[in-house]
Amino acid sequence: MKLAVFGATGGTGIEIVKQAIERGHSVTAFVRNPAALSEMGDALMRISGDIHDSASVEQAVQGQDAVICALGARDLKKTMVRTEGTLKIIETMKKKNVRRLFVVSAMGVGDSWDSLSLINKSFFAILLKSAREDHEAQEAAVKASGLDWTIIRPSGLVSTPRTGVYKFGENIRAKTSQISRADVADLILNELEDHTLVHKAVTITN
């Protein structure tokens, strides 16, 4: 399949790109720095640009079978980059007639709020308030898009090796507050073939 990955240089994005190439997919990474991910050589196509720039986003989305959005923010400052970027991606996908969209969100967003423990609810409400607001708006945009979307809500991202052993489903409770970024990528790429999670928002956890 032909895939475009936004947020390709983040921890989860890198895992998605690596595993997608390993599985034989044709991958286009949307990056700010054209030298990013250079270690992957010619196996990866790179489109450099800003998520707010229509021309570069169109270049990345054109001709793809699916788009994977793993946009994030690197600090706790108030930002709506996930929502704004996702809206631009949705707009472009409709224009270019690309239907399949995956978005990496977070456990506790939307109707998964009640699956959090009291401690994690407090953590979200106080320390990650801005990030949660961004994710909430992002998910709302995705659900209203009319596209064939799937939202993935990790319980807590860590940079450990892929295990292929994890639990996922709608509004499930986390066994732990951690899930490998590599396992998140594994679930997304499996769903590309399975087509069982269209129009679903699922939590992934250990």
- For the secondary structure, the number of strands is 10
Biggest sheet, in brief?
Answer: 8 strands, mixed
Strand content: 15-25%
Indicate the mean pLDDT.
Answer: 90
Radius of gyration: 16 Å
What is the C-level CATH assignment?
A: Alpha Beta
Q: Could you give me the name of the CATH homologous superfamily?
A: NAD(P)-binding Rossmann-like Domain
Walkthrough of the structure:
The protein is α/β, with parallel strands linked by helices and 206 residues long. The protein has a single domain, classed as NAD(P)-binding Rossmann-like Domain (Rossmann fold). It is 36% helix and 22% strand. The strands form two sheets. It has an eight-stranded mixed sheet with strand order 3-2-1-4-5-6-10-8, with helices on both faces. Strands 7-9 form a two-stranded parallel ribbon. Helix 1 links the parallel strand 1 and strand 2. The longest helix is centred in the middle third of the chain and has 16 residues. The protein is globular. It starts with a strand and ends with a strand. The mean pLDDT is 90.
How does the SSE layout of this entry go?
Layout (H helix, E strand, L loop, with lengths): L1 E5 L4 H12 L3 E6 L12 E5 L5 H8 L4 E4 L11 H16 L3 E5 L13 H9 L2 H15 L4 E7 L2 E2 L8 E3 L9 E2 H14 L5 E6 L1
Parallel strand pairs: 1-2, 1-4, 2-3, 4-5, 5-6, 6-10, 7-9
Antiparallel strand pairs: 8-10
